[in-house]
Amino acid sequence: MAVYHGPSCRKCRALGLKLFLKGERCVTQKCAFERAPYPPGKDKTSRRKLKSYTEHLLEKQKAKAYYGVLERQFRRYFKNAKQMPGQTGENLVKILECRLDNIVYKAGFASSRKQARQLISHGNILLNGRKVTIPSLIVSKNDIISIKEKLKSSQELKEKIDYAYKSGIAPWLSLDPNNMSVKVLDIPSIEDIRVPFKADTIVELYSR
């Protein structure tokens, strides 16, 4: 599995967007984007108006960084979204939202999508009772994602899941904090998804 190994905070600054790539650190004063919300190597007055193509490209980069997806995989998702009924942009967002690593993150099992991918890759996540090690798996309606038994005694993990449960998670997911599991109630509607990028702009980019 190809992954990005560069500095997470630098990526947020380059895109001009807080992506919460480092989990809990992103909500503290240590967050690099909060301290310097402008591109690396520039000052806070240097951000300029972007040209059309660059603006379109930036939206795609935001989406890839937000979900931790590289170009080849992103193109495949776009191709699948285009073949589905409905609007391509909305379909693309739904596919990305249904990635296993995203569900693990949203359920509070991990502090970031990067950490969620590590949990899955190390065999600590079960999908319908079976161990899975592929973070990019696309989940389906009624799938149940749970924590491996040996990790259920982790107090830190319990606190994360309890916090997610009390804070409220996506309406298309049902979290069971006692069993440390989350069920996919349905494929999300676009109204239930909030993302920091413009999906329609990405569609325009690939339509050029």
From TrEMBL:
Q: Which GO terms describe its biological process?
A: ribosomal small subunit biogenesis; translation
Q: Where is the Small ribosomal subunit protein uS4 N-terminal domain?
A: 3-97
Write down the Gene3D superfamilies for this protein, in alphabetical order. Answer: Ribosomal Protein S4 Delta 41, Chain A, domain 1 (1.10.1050.10), RNA-binding S4 domain (3.10.290.10)
- InterPro entries referenced in this protein's UniProt entry, alphabetically: Ribosomal_uS4 (IPR022801), Ribosomal_uS4_bac-type (IPR005709), Ribosomal_uS4_CS (IPR018079), Ribosomal_uS4_N (IPR001912), S4_RNA-bd (IPR002942), S4_RNA-bd_sf (IPR036986)
All residue ranges annotated as the RNA-binding S4 domain in the record: 98-162
GO molecular-function term, one example from the UniProt record? structural constituent of ribosome
The terms describing its cellular component in GO are:
small ribosomal subunit
The answer to whether keyword rRNA-binding applies is yes
Keywords, comma-separated and alphabetical: Ribonucleoprotein, Ribosomal protein, RNA-binding, rRNA-binding
Q: Is Ribosomal protein found in the keyword set?
A: yes
Tell me the protein family, please.
Belongs to the universal ribosomal protein uS4 family.
Tell me, in a sentence or two, what this protein's role is: With S5 and S12 plays an important role in translational accuracy.
Q: How does it assemble?
A: Part of the 30S ribosomal subunit. Contacts protein S5. The interaction surface between S4 and S5 is involved in control of translational fidelity.
**What is this protein's name?**
Small ribosomal subunit protein uS4
Point out the gene that encodes the protein.
Answer: rpsD
